[in-house]
Amino acid sequence: MNRQKIAIVVVCLGLAMNAAISADEKLSVLPETIDGVAVSDMMNHYLRQQARRRFEEWKRDYEQRKTPEQVAEYQKRLRHKFLEAIGELPQRTPLNSRVTGVVRRVGYRVEKVIFESQPKHYVTAALFLPDAEKHKPPYPGVLVPCGHSKIAKAHDSYQTMGALLALNGMAALVFDPIDQGERGQLLKDWPGLWGTKAHTMIGVGSILLGRNTAWFEIWDGMRGIDYLQSRPEVDPKRIGCTGNSGGGTQTSYLMALDDRIIAASPSCYITNFYERILDLGAQDAEQNIYGQLAFGMDHADYLMMRAPVPILICAATRDFFDIRGTWDSFRYAKRLYTRLEFAERIDLLENDAGHNYNRLAREGVVRWMSRWLLKKDEPITEPDIKLLTEKEIQCSPNGQVMLLEGARSVYDLNRDFEKDLARRRKKLWATTERSELLNQVRKLAGIRRLTELPKPKVEELGVVERDGYQVRKMVLKPEDGVYLPALMFVPSRKPTKDTVLYVHEKGKDADAAPGGPIEKLVKAGQMVLAVDLRGTGETQQTSQRYFKPYAGTDGQDVYTAYLLGRSYVGMRTEDVLVCASFLRRQQARRLKLIAVGHVSVPALHAAALEPDMFGEVTLVRSLVSWANLIELGRSYNQLVNTVHGALTTYDLGDLARTLGDKLTVEAPLNALGKPH
């Protein structure tokens, strides 16, 4: 291996730190803030700076898009990238649809429908059909994906939208998303898990397969359109789509990807990523498409990817989806529609309210659909709607599709895919050169070669004296905005054995107490460098709670990295290699690597990709495999250790086998953190 020579460059990092050591031997290194940013927000700040640079590139690219030909080329490119990022969509299979009941209301009827978007993967929906005596079929069909309501299609907003469309001569299919309404996916294991947290749980495993929770939702929506088109009452060439909140997310994706949609209205979702969503914090799994900030797909692009399809953006002044971002995205889209000479085909309805799908929004949406699907443009007034009870709108016999015989959950579908990938991986690793396989690992995880990594700047900040050794405080800075606080444990007598790089999921001082594991190594004559990898220890994110406890406190930052096409595994692997290279420069003796907890995943990557760097590797309480996560479905705090599409090429065991006898694994854990 070509070993990189890294010199210590002692620089002033502007930490404004008092190097004096207090009597209680505090082992913290960093101050409370660096450059005005709380150290626990270091990664959030670092990632958002990268996002801002991407936005400048996005704006430059946008301004180059002037002609219809340039717009068409952009639309083709972005559609390809979008589909590539969410994973190849499945083949169409029989819908096997059935109507399980009908409820009649004045001016319309509601049919309770179950269909299979994939074999035995059931979707429950309510089809609102106009009174045939007042409105002659075939009718336009409007797909209505529900937002994040636990009761989904039974919610008054979504029922009312379906009824209002039917009263105005359009058929509406209002369907339950996964883990809402009648579509709970973990009834036996976690019956209380639903909505955004449930979607994020699905996302953890899906990421490893190169999919996204959006993959399931988009396909459900497309098959919903298939169902609408299968109905003799519906004109298959006049299809619209509208949804609110999480349904607005689905509408945004569907209107960008499905050419059958000729009019759309996403509600209470469109804003922008670069300046607004990241202020709020990255949202649940389906709202984050892998690498989209890197390849240039913001909310405005959902509006422009099929321009000049008519789109009405519904928004709310006091929404948590920032209205300023909504107007910014609308302005970009409006300018592009104008360049195409179809300015009238995109508009914005802003009602003075909070996050909602209220009467004003519904009336505006139905008028928009009537204008473009019925060629009628006149005011719409919403009458009093007699809502169906949850029981009346229930489609399945027991109120949950997973209680149907042979029902398949999203977790079952992921398990099937992983088993197929496992067969492919076995063949791949048996027939492909090791160097080529490791190159593929590097590419997937985003890990540079050792020779490509930057030289760290290092600052020493004080010494703690202990019985028989010193603890030297230092900071390694591998790149702008990233600070790795570290403790160097140096025996008083000249070290005679290996130098150890020690990383722990809870930080450098987790095992550093007198009498602890690190002291035992030092008193045995070994020098130890304990380091907080980025986002651990002192820089562990503490203010973000959106995804706890399933995705850990890092969840929103991890998803910001995901939007940028980066993985924490890749970034932390590079941290390990930078620190190891620093040690190699200081000490010619053999280097050992010890990793405790979830940081074992990047440690394993570092050791496998640079096999000459470490003489011994010990992983303690490490995840047994990514395949185990897929098999269990459920997991705790594993989002931080996902690599998009990793299981298409390798699992952790494949990396472990490359290390042979130099690897020791102690007390491995399953994806739920229990002994394996």
Ordered list of secondary-structure elements with their pairings:
Blueprint: E1 33-34, E2 37-38, H1 42-63, H2 68-86, E3 98-105, E4 108-118, E5 121-130, E6 139-145, H3 156-167, E7 171-175, H4 195-208, H5 213-230, E8 234-244, H6 246-257, E9 261-267, H7 273-280, H8 292-295, H9 299-304, E10 311-316, H10 323-339, E11 346-351, H11 359-374, H12 390-393, H13 410-431, H14 434-445, E12 457-466, E13 469-479, E14 482-491, E15 499-504, H15 517-523, E16 527-531, H16 555-563, H17 568-586, E17 591-596, H18 600-609, E18 616-620, H19 626-632, H20 652-659, E19 663-666
Parallel strand pairs: 6-7, 6-8, 8-9, 9-10, 10-11, 15-16, 15-17, 17-18, 18-19
Antiparallel strand pairs: 1-2, 3-4, 4-5, 5-7, 12-13, 13-14, 14-16
Helix pairs in contact: 3-11, 13-19, 17-18, 18-20
Your description of this structure?
With 676 residues, this protein is an alpha/beta fold. The chain has two domains: 33-54 and 457-666, Alpha/Beta hydrolase fold, catalytic domain (Rossmann fold), CATH 3.40.50; 85-399, 3-Layer(aba) Sandwich (Rossmann fold). 36% of the residues lie in helices and 20% in strands. The chain has 20 helices and 19 strands. The strands form three sheets. Strands 3-4-5-7-6-8-9-10-11 form a nine-stranded mixed beta sheet, sandwiched between helices. α3 packs parallel to α11 (359-374).
